[in-house]
Amino acid sequence: MKHTVETYSRDLEAELTFILDLMQQHWCIRPKLAIKVIAGLVVDCEYDRQWKRTLKRRLYIDPARISTSRKPLNLARNLARSYKGNVKFVYDRKNTDPMPVEAGLYQKMLAVELQRVGVSYNHLSVEPALVVSVDFNIEGFAHKGQRVWVTATNENTYKKPALIARQFAAEISDHRNTCKECGIGVAPLIYRAKGWYEQYPQMGSRPLPDAVEQYLHPRLAKEARERMTKEGIYESSTG
Fold this sequence. Notes:
Layout: H1 5-27, E1 32-48, E2 54-61, H2 72-84, H3 103-116, E3 121-138, E4 141-143, E5 147-150, H4 161-178, H5 189-194, H6 211-216, H7 218-231
Antiparallel strand pairs: 1-2, 1-3, 3-4, 3-5
């Protein structure tokens, strides 16, 4: 991967700071964020099952579980169950010594364990990955954000920092609009864009998309603005 934990964290924080400035300007609130980027692994394994069907598996190795449920022995047993069919699969729940999150070492250990459980594979690779999460706090209410896995194949495309920042910010925007604890009672943007008012009358007020929504969802915000302006059903903006 070209990105490291440090460079991805830096770029993601820069993108989110810009969006937070926008939220503060138009919403008069600034959500507090806890950005976390850690190193993980992604395993790709291709093998022929006993009934001659090729199977491809992709498994993500969380560093917090690399010495327990995701250690090479357990992963090999997991793959053996798919490889052989009805095989009794028992986790080794004993904690081993902490393993470094190192792709080459993990691949060598996994290859040994696969041989022990009788799995003959066509392809096996272990690559570094990043586990990205952003928890946030709005008006004193803490929320656990989603987790995203970034790999070498997507770090410069649909999971580059700028797009992931928008993804996390969109989650914050949705909570700000609809959450029962920290929201302000605004109908989701998709409902405003599609005109689903009679079907969902409980979804709150219907303001035109504000500057934050226009930045995060330009096409959907444009559709909502055009529909609501044409139908003349919008209420005063919250931005």
